[in-house]
Design goal:
The relative contact order is 0.10. The protein is built from 2 helices and 11 strands. The strands form 3 sheets. The protein has a 6-stranded parallel sheet. Strands 1-2-3 form a 3-stranded antiparallel sheet. The chain has a two-stranded parallel sheet with strand order 6-8. By secondary structure, the protein is mostly beta strands. Helix content is about 10%, strand content about 25%.
Length: about 190
């Protein structure tokens, strides 16, 4: 079941839904004659996106001020995570889509509250061992990238329930992956 909290801001005349693990979604303004479909917003939430340097800074600032920080980076010229990302406390959801980032650095391991990571359509070839300190990670997607191997430390991700590694270049999963106690879904097609 999805845990949600509905809040009403009388000053702004709006209802906001806070879903566990996701960004706040404004459902509708009270005086809105054509309120949006809240289910459509929950199915396809608008992520905080970035596609240039100013928007990257804005996305980071929004994540820093959110009660459930979530960050989506989509700048096609981004080759490394900006240092400001590491100042976000409580980051729970990270998406990196369509960037030029090729290494997931050790420093990502500091985000111990991360429960979801999605890396898609990036030239990621390496995941440094520090990444595998994300012991609360439940959902991991690294798809349409250039991964060829995973570190044996991959088995540290004990809370992992969903793993998608499709469209990479992986020929063998690390020994012990089948012993991940909570893994319910594994997608490895296109390797």
């Amino acid at each position: 079941p999805l845990k949600c909290q509905l809040t009403y801001d009388a000053g702004k005349k709006r209802l906001t839904l806070l879903a566990q693990g996701g960004p706040p979604m404004v459902l509708c303004r009270v005086d809105d004659p054509n309120p949006p479909d809240p289910l459509a917003q929950m199915r396809n939430p608008a992520p905080v996106q970035s596609n240039n340097e100013d928007q990257v800074r804005s996305a980071i600032a929004n994540a820093e001020s959110s009660p459930n920080p979530s960050l989506t980076l989509t700048d096609p010229n981004l080759t490394a995570l900006p240092k400001e990302v590491y100042g976000i406390t409580g980051l729970t959801n990270l998406q990196i889509v369509g960037t030029k980032i090729s290494v997931l650095p050790n420093e990502l391991g500091q985000f111990r509250l991360l429960t979801q990571v999605r890396i898609n359509t990036c030239p990621v070839k390496e995941i440094q061992d520090g990444f595998f300190n994300l012991t609360n990670l439940g959902n991991l997607e690294i798809s349409t990238c250039r991964l060829t191997t995973l570190s044996p430390k991959f088995v540290n991700l004990k809370k992992l329930t969903d793993l998608s590694l499709y469209d990479n270049r992986i020929s063998v999963l690390p020994e012990g992956w089948e012993q991940l106690p909570n893994l319910k879904s594994l997608i490895v097609g296109g390797n």
